[in-house]
TrEMBL record:
Gene designation per UniProt: Plcd4
Required co-factors: Ca(2+)
One Gene Ontology CC term in the entry: endoplasmic reticulum
Amino acids binding Ca(2+) 5: 690-692
Keyword Heme applies: no
Catalytic reaction list: a 1,2-diacyl-sn-glycero-3-phospho-(1D-myo-inositol) + H2O = 1D-myo-inositol 1-phosphate + a 1,2-diacyl-sn-glycerol + H(+); a 1,2-diacyl-sn-glycero-3-phospho-(1D-myo-inositol-4,5-bisphosphate) + H2O = 1D-myo-inositol 1,4,5-trisphosphate + a 1,2-diacyl-sn-glycerol + H(+)
Organism classification: Eukaryota, Metazoa, Chordata, Craniata, Vertebrata
Binding site for substrate: 9-36, 417, 419, 505, 532
Enzymatic class: hydrolase
Region (Disordered): 427-454
Co-factor binding comment: Binds 3 Ca(2+) ions per subunit. Two of the Ca(2+) ions are bound to the C2 domain.
Designated name of the protein: Phosphoinositide phospholipase C
Start and end residues of each PI-PLC Y-box domain: 476-592
Active site: 289, 334
Amino acid sequence: MQQGTLMRKVKSKSWKKQRYFKLQDDCMTIWYQSKKTGKIESAFSISDVETVREGHQSEVLQSLAEEFPPERCFTIVFYGRRGNLDLIAGSAEEAQCWVQGLRQLIEPTSFPLTSALVSCTWIRDWFQKADKNKDGRMNFKEVQRLLKMMNVDMNEDHALRLFQAADKSESGTLEGEEFVLFYKALTQREEVLSLFQDFSEDGKKLTLLELVDFLQQEQLEDEGTEELAMELIDKYEPSETARARHVLSADGFLMYLCSPEGSIFNPRHRPLWQDMSQPLCHYFISSSHNTYLIEDQIRGQSSIEGYIRALKRGCRCLEVDCWDGPNGEPVVYHGHTFTSKIPFREVVSTLGKYAFKTSDYPVILSLENHCSMEQQEVLAQQLKAILGEQLLTTTTDGRVPTQLPSPEELKHKILLKGKKIGRLEDMLDGPMDEAPDVSDDDNGAEAEEERRRVKVRWTQHSPALQKDKESLAQALSDCVVYCKSVAFQGFQEARSHSRPSEISSLAEAKARKLIRDTGNEFVRHNTWQLTRIYPSGMRTDSSNYNPQEMWNVGCQLVALNFQTAGMEMDLCDGLFSQNGCCGYVLKPPFMRDEETLFNPSDPSSWEGPGPVTLTIQVISGQQLPKVANSKVGAVIDPLVRVEIHGVPVDQAHQETKYIENNGFNPHWDETLQFQLHVPELALVRFVVEDYDKTSRNDFVGQFTLAFANIKPGYRHIHLLSKDGTSIPPSSLFVHIRITE
């Protein structure tokens, strides 16, 4: 890896500034400084980098394609919503040096990253931060600075005692193993040690049978517990001698509790675990609104990055607004606003490249078509030419569907949602009034009645058909198969005249009114047809509505502004973090039954299994991050709030008291309890805030998951940032009980 390189940092075609980039000695941090002033402009950690793209793989670099060859260009992509960094190196060799070096640093190593290795990484990281004079040693003044950085407000005498205990050489400084000793003393987990000793006869180790007792009694593991205990010892016990004796030390016990197996999220539900052979309408589907925007709705930037980020997060329904562009090329932007424009061709190319990198299951492209007939022909041509076999242009079996196909049947397919001329059966079976074959009198009578109703309906709608023919290109219409957009005329009208392959889109306010007035009908409607919900046009700041109330009635495509962080996107990420992050989550059985009595506003009308009680003991927190832009030396006063999002009767939140001046290892030991009437729809959100008695509390971290994915027992909750990215090693330690 180059230790320092002069490169161009690019923000637009006209903004190209030379900056000196350098990898720090810790191999974890990169900073860059102005060539003119020498001032360090910014720095970022390798852990912030998600990937590196070579060549002209951003709009900015594409706009410079004639000026700079792809071999000299690359893009650094960060986790979360942080903007990308586009760079142009002085030569292809320099570019490759940075690209390959960064990839080596960010990509997983060939050996498993154990808790011990993670711990060593963090010890080194803290040492580098605190060792201000960079002499490889730490004096007591630097230790005091370290404690402030780690969010610890510790008594000076106690800190000095820890320092002197670790200073085995009595040199007045800590180095190497001495600092490791100091760090371990600092991070001693008394609450975990106490739990360990409750099950250990000698207080030093857990035998295989003692570990089995813990797994059965506290973690409520009921299958293959002896095999599981052996696996955990082999995986997390750092001592070879202890592993050979099939025992678990206190260090191994802590590593297990901090591992995926010790997480609150059931590890069996992380990979694909649900039935994917049901009709599309039986799933909640991760959906984005105005996907091309990465800022606000009025002046924000339109970018293919919006599509890449959404698809990488498992989004399966994307939106594209198409308008006539110059030189016969349609463009994508938010019409009648000052948002920037991108060619439709680039959006489709991006979709073809990224659609199935995160998930194999179908992508729905929701097309808002504002183009002339001529440019609609171009839309159709580009969709077919660029996507090829990926674009679905006929039904899976060539027949008129009586229900929607399944995600499994539509793997690696892109479905276009939009207006369509006539009906799907006209493409497949010829004349619309042709009666189906019948074999008995009863069926013949039913078919005759159906034929009569079809003719009446066709006559009634023929003016609309003629209007569609005049405003919609046939080639584009033919690209729409299972997702024909139709205006919503009421549930009775839909039941009488609509088809499973039709879909209505509703603004959030209209959806709320239907939920309030006809909740059960809405649930029934969503058992056989797709419904898309989108944000109010008044949300010009790209804010979001609460998706939970829409999921409560089974709406599948609840479209959110993915670019805007907050509680609403936390709920979305929480729901879709299961099932392999494939973007599809199977609805509970009572939301897939066309005769269901379920109404979220009145759960008592539905004969469910009865309420369950969720009891959460919030025990402690570990290395909680400081609040962004906080004062130097400030230490947070953390509290934990637990929120239940579900049907109205289940909506609730409770919080702990706040702990003064301790973000490093706060202890709450408080118990919160909730009763859930419809746990199948509940999401549980854990939020850590910095208490402020004079203003709103500041956000520290959160974690959200579906109630169905909670693993009871002693569990760690690994916190996420406002952007939904992990903030290791920040976590909460809790004890979970679920009773009926």
